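Sanity check

After download, print the first record. It should look like this:
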Amino acid sequence: MPAIRLGHALVDRVEEHFLPVSLHALTNDESLISRRVAPLPDGFFDPDSKNFRFSNHSWLLRVDGLTVLIDPCTGNGRTGRGPYFDGLNLPYLERLAAIGVTPDDVDIVFCTHLHHDHCGWNTRQDGREWVPTFLRAAYLFVDDEYRRWDTASTAMHPNEFNPNVFDECVRPVVEAGLAKIVPIPHTISPSLTIEPAPGHTVGHAMLRLVSGGVRAYFTGDAFHHPVQLTRPELHLPGCDDLATAIATRRALVRRALDETAFLFPAHFPEPHYGRLAVEVGAPTGDEVYFEPGGAPAG
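Expected structure tokens:
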């Protein structure tokens, strides 16, 4: 994906990898699929396999003199993450370099939440130890999310697909003095604010960009597929609080429409981002749908 321009901000995507996920894990409504999914680019639905391409990527945002890395994926050499994620050996840092950014160029690392596929490259393996990857960056962790996963806490931390993640991907950053635990909302710069988007996890958050009259939201796992923009009640397994996750999706849909804002989720296939529109008088009444892409090249 070439860089795109949002007001005074430049946005790049850093790919880790893709995996197939069944759209039927979200919905079996063939009429809905025909109306709102089939017209989308190929990666959003394969009519033969019924799968979509679940993209794992980071967003790299340059604005206000800052280089901000959002959701640094799973990382290489991990175990306990499950199929498609264990034992990766992928050129993520080389892909970062290909867009002109070295680890030392990154000023801010922001994880929308602390599932393994959103914080893995926080650290890298050095011998038998996990050490911070971005040694000049401030790593921003939302306070509620940090507490939810902190293994030093006496609270229960149930999540069978996220073992060892805090100790491998967060604690080394804290011990290196690079972490900043923040309440939200939290202003990073004149253009950037971290805002709450809870439900998928207790402290799940998003990054809001307002620059040169353009608005965009980097939404992490608030949405996994555009069909959830039309039907926010649809979901994949794994939410801390499903009712809150649905309410968050509904609120984000309203905001994106009201603001004509771009959405930059963490897992949409190519072109990976877009805006919302409404079809008036659709078969089920006025219906929100996804318009992929739409921003100018950087």
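If your output differs, re-run the checksum step. Summary of this record's structure: Residues 242-259 form the longest helix (18 residues).
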